[in-house]
Amino acid sequence: MRIKSFLLAVRAPFIIGVALTIATLLPHAGTLISQGGSYPAVVCPGALGGATEQISLPSGGISTRAVAARNLKLTLAKSRVIAGGVAPTFVSGNPGSEVAFESLLGTSTADAVCEVGDNDQWFIGGSAGVTSQGTLQIINSGLSDSMVQIFPYNSKVALAPIALTVMANSAKNIALASIAPGDEALALHLVTDSGRVSSFLLDHRRSGLKDLGASFVTPVAAPATTSYISGILASGAKVASSMRFLVPGNINASVHLTIFSAGGVLTPVGFDALTIAHQRVIDLPLPQIALSGAYGIEITSDQPLFAATLTRTSGAGTDFAWAGQLTPLSSFRVNFAGARAQFFFMGSSISLQAQWVDNKGKPNSTRISGSSYASWRPVGALNGVSFKLLSKRPIYGGAIVANVNGGLSYLPLLANQLISRSQAPVADLRTLARQ
Amino acid sequence: MMATGSSSSQSAHQAHSEVDLSHFFVTAIIVTHDGAAWLPEVIAALSSQKRPIDRVIAVDTGSVDASAKLLRAAGITCIPAERDLGYGDAIEIALEQIPKLHHPAELAGLTEPADLFHEMIWLIHDDCAPAKDALQLLLEAIKDRPQVVIAGPKLLGWYDRDHLLEAGISIAPNGARWTGLEAREQNQGQHDEIKEVLSVSTAGMLVRRAAFEELGGLDPNLALFRDDVDLGWRAYVAGFSAICVGAASAFHAEAAASERRTVDVSEAFLHRPLLLDRRNAAYVMLANSSWWMVPWLIIQLLGTSLLRVIFDLLAKLPGYAGDEIAAVALLLIHPADLIKARRSRRRKRLLSPSVVAAFIPPRGSQIRAGFDQVTNTISQRLASSTEFETAPQQSYSDLGVISEEFDEPDFSLPARTSIIRRFIRRPDSLSLIGIIALAIISAHARFGSLDGGALGFIPTSGADLLRNYAQAWHLVGMGSAVAAPPWMAIIAIASLATLGHLSLFVTLLFLITPPLAFIIFVTSLRRIGISQNSSTFGGLVYVLTPLLWSSLNQGRIDILVLYLLAPIFIVVNPLMLSMVAISWRRVFATTLLISVVVSFSPLLLATWLIVQFSLLIREVIGIAGNSQKSAGWIERIESTVFRPIAKRFAAFISALLLTLPWSLGLLIHPTEFLLTPGIPLANGGTVQTLLSNPGGQGAPAWWVIAPVTLFMLFSAFIRSMRRSALVSAAILAAAILLNALHLSGHGATEPVYVGAAFLVISIILIPPMLVVLEKVTPNLRLRNLGISHLAIAGATLLSFLSIALFAGWVLVGQSTSLVQSDQSDVVPAFLSAIAQSPAKPKTLVLSSTPTTTTFFISRGNRLGLGDADVVTQTPPQIADAVSQLISGSGVSAAKTLGSFGIQYFFLKSPVVPETARVIDGVGGFTRMSATKIGIVWHIVGSSPRVMLTSAVGKNYIIPASDIGATGNAPETGQITLAEQYDRSWRLISNGVNVPLRHAPSGSPVFTVTSPGKVTILFDATAHRGLISLQLLTLLIAGVMALPSGRRRRQVPLEELV
Q1: Omega prior to B661 cis, within 30 of 0
Q2: How many CB atoms lie within 10 A of CB B1034?
Q3: Domains of chain A: which residue ranges?
Q4: What pLDDT, in 10s, does the model give residues B200-220?
């Protein structure tokens, strides 16, 4: 009798239990949402300062066009390395990264990862001094006019902003010397009010007939209290490095700098609790430290700041290269187009898989790992290289690129065409509602 | 028994006892027609008159009862007459039988000069018994008033002899018989004076014979009814007058008017007294009034008849309604009678007909009387119900067990505490104050015109919402022909409570729903006999739930209304499981209530329809199985066994028809039964559903467990509640399963919202749980401490804790309400303004976050209340174009969007820069502005709402209104309407209907073959038809649900007279 009574009592909970089980087994809401993903188109800079330009494409089947007023037709690239013209090049979306290699007079070379662009970009590098031949190229690859504002900073003060309009599907080149005439230390903040704008800053210096070198300055999106610059050529007799800082806020920053290299982890003299004045571009030479190969720098500060490293080589291969703050590496694929490179990675736990094809077409693979830094130098010239992250912790990477003509270049390992994975656009009435 | 009337008349008689009335010669004329029931008392009353009647004569109009026999037995001369003889004709026959007295010598014993001698006739109905002194008082009054030719007593009820029936009569301009008395006015001597009146009833009319004959007697066209008023009117116009002698009284059964005997006069078509009365009323008005008044009177008579027809139909008295129509028709069919009557009156007229104006009641008095009657009826009903409810409890002394004096203090002060103190001492009052405080605190962001959440923008006026409901084509997205839900009409009509100010009504609804729901729930519990304390506890459990308070925050107006209506079902059984004992009226009343409820919840509509259909099938099968095989279907249908099926079917079909055309759409698309009114919102998951918490923004966290959830837990283990627990568990299980489903509809995709199911569970569980608590708790003292003590204590403690926790959450833990007052528009104002231009451009609004990208088409106006319920799916071409646009590959996106009349593209803040860059980079979008609310692009080459494309590709704009368009087509070509395709779109070119085609883009297209005027319209004939059917059903159901009017013959005579 008691059992019967109990059974009658548990009927209700049993029904609910069955319903709960079924409801749990049904597909979860998240699995029902359709995901869409796409790779944005990128823009490569035009050949600046009389350079010759080659653009390496990561794979075949990529279409390009010149960013010129009447040209809107995309053309399928016939090879993986195409010649760039004076006009910037628009490259259709694909999962790899494109690199523009520019060769100037002598040994000067400059490499830039082609970019999607951003509405807010900071260039920490360049010079408007007497040797400056540098150019800021603002490219509007969109089909409507763009409004861009430039906020320059020099070694003393934040300069008056410059506003300009870039017509649809065109580019505007501005000489750095015209932005802050005479200033060696320069930083630029570009704000795009409207339009699809990509900007490149080529720091090119020349003294008389002697070419002093050239380098693209890597754009940075936002200041940070902890920054990484990775892949700097170790100092030596013909190699010297310096740091450039900009604290965009209104408070001076106290900065601590740590160098990671195969020779150990150290802080250069004078770079512990270093005070950096705000809203000024500060250049500080790095002391000559005997390090082998490449190294990386971790910069920590109590205020968000920008930092970049300028490495100069002298002698036969006179050139220089700017290395800027890095963002965490994502899966990355690039075509080095036969150049040699040395890679340097930073991070608390480095683990990634590198696959590459040498200039003979032979595929290779290796695993790179380390606790706070890792260095990898593939033997021989490179064509396609891809990195696949094996660690979930952030890894920062940069590469020193030695071009065929002996110049020095720096290439940040920044995937320019990250897939923008989002929920596929859906018609939803709530778009019109206050919720 | 004679009561006040008699005593007053006695005193009056004493005052005039010395008056000499010997020079009057009175002949009483009784006309009988099946009056045996009243005749003995009438004869007795006549024979006992203090001033004896000089002569009595009777005319029997073919009585089939013992009337004639009774008369003869009383020694009264009885003249037999035809059964269909009218009253006036009967009097005429009687007068012919009694020669006129010309000289006193003709009568022995009379010595007065002839000019002082007055022959009077006293008209007596066979159902009217005059008081003993009636004749004496009438004669005394008329003695010194030579101009008075007609006098009559006040008429009192036959059964209730204090009930004043008449003290003189008149006629209202609309033909109504006018006595000037209040409904069921009691005789307290207030009308005992002698006053001039238009006329008195022929039931006891004393009239000078000479004048009567000079006036032509009673009009033979007025066989019965209104002949008295007519005579009085003619008397006045001839220079005479009439009085009512209030001190004199007669008791009248009004047998003919109250349909206690058949009306057999030849003029009474189909023996219907009401028809004759109305016809005669109109006749009197039209025959006696001035000619210039006749048209106006006709309008008044027709208008009043029409109103009476409506009221009679509402009272389910179609026979009376027919009488009203037939009365006017009869008069208009025979205008010759009227013309003759007017001629004869003109010949005898001395004064203007308007001489009686003083006796005609003003129009306002009619309205006032009608209003009084309605309020009287309502107050009587309420009084009777209150009487029943508040009948004092019988004491022991009432029962006769002890004497009244026993143990009673010698002196005691009446225990009268102040109203405020009494109010505060009551637990329900205190709880109500607390809930009001919570409601006000909770509503701090909702004072003003509300918007947000599921609600949408509230139109200012209820009429706007009603117009939206009635519209066949809705201006939402790409347009929609989906029928609007009936809850829109209900809310719009309910806003009459705030004089049609809809936004104020909704604001108040959001404010007062918690306290009002508490009051209604507590009252409902009290009606089923639950004590005040338990009802208060139940009310708190009902109101302090995540469902109600999250609905307030989320703008779920449907749940709020359901919260107010649901407690009614504690008293009313919504499912009507057995139809045998339910009256037709109850069936329709319940169905009407159900229709209102399910209008706010398609889920409940589906459930109710399924249950009713199942019961119908079961009943049909039951009858088919039980009835005799030999009986045919007709016999079965006519049998009483079939009646429950008929009622069930009527309920089922009425609910469907009352919610037309919306319900038809639901039947065609059954998944829409699972949608809830308003803009879809994210809601809770399985765990929250298990805890009766709908979840979503504005809902409490899962651990704020509603007391009703605890009730459900405990009810499973209480034997008497197992049935309720099982049903509740089944509903909750269904809710859990439904909640796991994701459904597209109302413009978004979300899990099914099951709030209505929680409400049903509350109604199923709380009342029986309180009954159990009330039963068990008193017995706990008698038992040893056991598990039941712990269970009850635990349940009560946990419930109180839960209530306290919930109240705490309302006070301090509530997150931001989605519904806010006075919110700004989503779309920039200039786009709203542009949307009103003749091109009627649309704007595609895009909202992009790093994880989601949504879009919808705006037509400039704000998303309003009810708009979500009619939204249709956006054409896939648009969705594809937006998808391609966002991915950066949409080179043809602008062209596609433009072809749908989308001329502007608005990227809502917060703007994801990448998205803006992509749109900037795709051809066809020209940036117009970038403000803090977003970025606007103009789509190059986009089409207007209506566009003519000629054969050579030239485009012309046809100016468009919101729905239709009218303009000139300068060339032949193809007209494209940038709207959702629907078969009801029509284009008329030069008066010719142009065939509709379905364009590949999904828009309606017409090919115009000749230049000229073109008109585009949406043919809403079918929609109007369905709405009309709905209104017709509403009318029928309303009439059926109203209390039935009674035919006069059904009203107990005691109640009437």
Answers
A1: yes
A2: 17
A3: 42-412
A4: 999 999 999 989 988 889 998
* CA of B755 vs chain A CAs: smallest distance (Å): 17
The reply to whether residue B740 touches residue A434, judged by beta carbons under 8 angstroms, is no
> Is B623 domain-assigned?
no
**How much is the ipTM here?**
0.70
Could you give the angle at the alpha carbon of B967 between the alpha carbons of B962 and B969, nearest 5°? Answer: 135
Which one of B737, B748, B820 has the shortest CB-CB distance to A23?
A: B737
What tens digit of pLDDT does each residue of B873-929 get? 888 889 888 887 887 666 678 888 998 999 999 998 888 877 887 788 777 888 888
Any A CB within 8 A of B752 CB: no
Q: What is the pLDDT of residues B98-143, one digit of tens each?
A: 877 765 545 555 554 445 568 899 999 999 999 999 999 999 999 8
Nearest-CA neighbor of B875 among B1027, B981, B749? B981
B980 reaches A (C-beta below 8 A): no
A12 touches chain B (CB under 8 A): yes
The neighbouring-strand residues paired with B890 are none
Contacts of A196 in chain B (CB under 8 A): 917-918, 920-921
**The total number of structural domains that make up chain B:** 4
On whether both B786 and B852 belong to a single domain, the answer is no
- The partner residue sitting opposite B888, judged by closest CB among A40, A194, A425, is A40
Distance from CA of B678 to the nearest CA of A (A): 11
Read off the pLDDT of residues B959-972 as tens digits, 9 standing for 90 and up.
Answer: 888 888 999 999 99
**Are A193 and B734 within 8 A, CB to CB?**
no
| Cis peptide preceding A285, ω within 30 of 0 | no
Q: Tell if the CB–CB gap between A13 and B729 is shorter than 8 Å.
A: yes
- What's this model's pTM, rounded to 2 decimal places? 0.70
Taking CB atoms within 8 Å and a gap of at least 24, the contacts of B367-375 are: B372/B182, B372/B183, B373/B183
* Chain A contact probe: residue of B455, B815, B878, B887 with most A CBs at under 10 A: B887
Per-residue pLDDT at A195 exceeds 90: no
Please indicate, yes or no, whether residues B805 and B843 belong to a single structural domain of this protein.
no
Q: Do residues B983 and B934 both lie within one domain?
A: no
Would the CB atoms of B679 and A142 count as touching at under 8 Å? Answer: no
Are both B719 and B761 inside the same structural domain? yes
Q: B722 and A146: CB-CB below 8 Å?
A: no
Q: A369: which strand partners?
A: A351
Among A412-416, B427-431, B583-587, the least confident range? A412-416
Residue B734 belongs to a domain = yes
B100 contacts B117 by C-beta, under 8 angstroms = no
The pLDDT value given to residue A142:
79
Q: Is residue B785 part of a domain?
A: yes
8 Å CB contact of B874 and A5: no
Q: Do A23 and B739 touch (CB under 8 A)?
A: yes
Whether residue B64 is contained in a domain is answered as no
Q: Which of B686, B737, B888 sits opposite A38 (nearest CB)?
A: B888
Whether pLDDT at B794 is above 90? no
Taking an 8 Å cut-off on Cβ atoms, the answer to whether B690 and A16 are in contact is yes
Helix orientation angle between B787-808 and B532-543, rounded to the nearest 10 degrees: 50
**Closest approach of chain A CAs to the CA of B321, in angstroms?**
51
Q: Does A1 touch chain B (CB under 8 A)?
A: no
What sign does the CA torsion over B77, B80, B83, B88 have? negative
Which string of b and e fits B660-669 if b means at least 16 CB within 10 Å? bbbbebbeee
Q: Same domain, yes or no, for B930 and B991?
A: no
Q: Do B920 and A194 touch (CB under 8 A)?
A: yes
Same domain, B695 and B770: yes
Of how many residues is chain B composed? 1057
Q: Which residues of B touch A118 (CB under 8 A)?
A: 913
Dump pLDDT digits (tens) for B630-678.
556 666 666 677 888 889 999 999 999 999 999 999 999 999 999 999 9
- Tell me chain B's radius of gyration from C-alpha atoms: 39
Residue B395's pLDDT is what? 43
Q: Is the same domain home to B148 and B253?
A: yes
